[in-house]
Design brief:
Length: about 130
């Protein structure tokens, strides 16, 4: 199960991640490697150290093991009925979900307080991924 370190007005998935960890789930948080590259999900547990990454996002250190989670909690700005999402525009999650889905079935669950439901999001490129809202 991967979550994310919330930025600005993003809803925090940390309470949910804590409950999942208490129930035995393995957790991961995303790491930005660079523009145009999928995120890497690194193992993390509550109390483990985090470092400041790109844009000051808290992320596991480089020596944390890489995981390929089955379920991702992803931030978004808007979504439509078909499950297409609009994020912050760099496509990190779209690339990451597509990479993981090329390996195995993966569920992506959107998380956002006040997310806008759009009648139709612009049709994403082939590398973009649908989510569950």
């Amino acid at each position: 199960m991967s979550g994310f370190s919330p930025l600005k007005s993003e809803i925090s998935p940390l309470p949910l991640l804590r409950r999942l960890a208490d129930a035995g789930a393995s957790l991961a948080l995303p790491v930005v490697l660079g523009r145009g590259q999928p995120l890497v999900m690194r193992a993390w547990s509550f109390g483990a150290p985090l470092v400041s990454g790109v844009w000051g996002i808290r992320e596991p250190p480089a020596d944390a093991p890489e995981l390929n989670p089955d379920i991702l909690i992803v931030p978004l700005l808007a979504f439509d009925r078909r499950g297409h999402r609009i994020g912050y525009g760099a496509g990190y999650y779209d690339m990451t979900i597509a990479r993981l889905r090329a390996m195995k079935p993966v569920a992506a669950i959107a998380s956002r307080l006040g997310a806008k439901k759009s009648p139709r999001c612009r049709r994403p490129p082939a590398t973009r991924a649908s989510i569950s809202c």
